[in-house]
Design a protein that fits this description.
Layout lengths: L40 E5 L5 E4 L7 E6 L2 H13 L3 E6 L6 H7 L6 E4 L15 E6 L15 E7 L6 H7 L2 E4 L4 H11 L3 H6 L7 E6 L2 E6 L4 H7 L7
Parallel strand pairs: 3-7, 3-8, 4-5, 4-6, 6-7
Antiparallel strand pairs: 1-2, 8-9, 9-10
Length: 239
């Protein structure tokens, strides 16, 4: 964007070069598109094939809960690292993350692994945002490192658990993958899902997630790229 000046009693702006106007046929206007959506991590496509994103890099604390499979959480972590974020994985199964962490930074430590409760202060800033991925089983303890400006937290639960209702209520964004009918009913009450959404949850294909943010709902299909599939395999709900 060019700079402009405002001087009392004189012309506004800086005079630039003069060019003839650009014109195009009216029928061609439909071919023009502008990327006006929010910046973020591409998490997949909606039912009409449009890319959907999660904006993890925010100036306010941002909590995300995923009730689903390790594969989806790892794809999100890998893609977040690809946007320049530092990813700290808090996990009790480091062996499931080691290969991914080694591959993510191509030799750089952009993804680090930490034991449960052992994530150090990350010093997140606008120029160095952080995503903390909590893969701590069915009952993740309250984290010592929490969401803060420019540091989002993604908590993975494989299924519903006693701590799930609290996490769902405290999260700005909740993703639900295939669950049992009983779990679907419980989730539906907490998130005020429709009867059709509750009925669909036990039938979801691998890689499909219902993302909920307040009253907003979006079905998303996550598919791995060739590189992601080579590293993590095909989409799967059960590990």
């Amino acid at each position: 964007m060019s700079s402009s000046l405002t001087v009392p009693g004189r012309l506004r702006g800086l005079l630039g070069p003069r060019h003839p106007g650009h014109a195009m046929p009216l029928d061609d206007l439909g071919a023009l598109t502008l990327p006006v959506g929010d910046d973020g991590v591409v998490i997949g496509d909606d039912s009409e094939g449009r890319p959907q994103m999660i904006g993890f890099h925010r100036p306010i604390p941002y909590e995300v809960l995923l009730i689903g499979g390790l594969w989806t959480a790892q794809v999100l972590a890998l893609r977040a690292a690809g946007t320049g974020a530092r990813v700290a994985v808090e996990t009790g199964r480091a062996q499931a993350w080691t290969t991914l962490a080694q591959a993510a930074g191509a030799g750089l430590e952009c993804m680090t692994l930490h034991g449960v409760g052992r994530v150090p202060p990350m010093g997140a800033t606008v120029g160095s945002p952080v995503l903390v991925v909590r893969d701590c089983g069915m009952r993740p303890p309250r984290g010592r490192v929490v969401a803060s400006p420019w540091q989002s937290v993604l908590t993975l639960l494989p299924y519903m658990s006693p701590v799930a209702p609290r996490l769902m209520r405290n999260s700005a964004l909740v993703g639900i993958q295939r669950v049992s009918p009983g779990e679907a009913e419980q989730i539906g009450k907490i998130l005020s899902l429709s009867a059709a959404e509750i009925e669909a949850l036990p039938t979801l294909a691998d890689g499909v997630t219902l993302w909920c943010a307040g009253a907003d709902r979006q079905w998303v299909m996550t598919m791995g790229t060739d590189a992601e599939s080579g590293l993590l395999g095909v989409a799967r709900r059960i590990d």
